[in-house]
Amino acid sequence: MVYIKWADAANPEHGWLTKEQFTEACTITDVETVGYLYEEDEHQVKVFQSHEGQDYNGGIAIPRSCIKRMVILPALETLSG
User: Fold this and answer.
1) How far apart are CA 31 and CA 80, in angstroms?
2) Whole-prediction pTM value?
3) Partner residues linked to 61 by β-bridges
4) 12 lies in which domain range?
5) What is the DSSP letter of 19?
């Protein structure tokens, strides 16, 4: 498991916006992601949210240049019952 705080790109709403609306909507935002670390290299870190066997769900590749903080989390025990 890994926690990543990173700067995410902004995508304003579709359609015509006033200058003020565009300025407010189009702002880079810090976001936080927690998930299973799939793989990483010098360019990116790949994380997924859940899996069943070899099938993965909720994956994201985060560019290293956007990462502000990354912490490897302690392993969680498997819950049963």
Assistant:
1) 31
2) 0.82
3) 46
4) 2-72
5) H
Q: How many domains does the chain have?
A: 1
Q: How far apart are CA 1 and CA 46, in angstroms?
A: 12
Q: For residue 81, name the pLDDT band (cuts at 50, 70, 90).
A: very low
Instruction: Write the CB contacts of 62 (distance below 8 Å, at least 6 apart in sequence).
Output: 4, 6, 33, 44, 45, 46, 47
Is residue 47 a contact partner of residue 62, using CB atoms and an 8 Å limit?
yes
Look at the chain and count its residues. 81
Note whether residue 80 is domain-resident. Answer: no
Q: What is the pLDDT of residues 7-43, one digit of tens each?
A: 999 887 778 989 998 888 888 999 999 999 999 999 9
Is 45 among the domain residues? yes
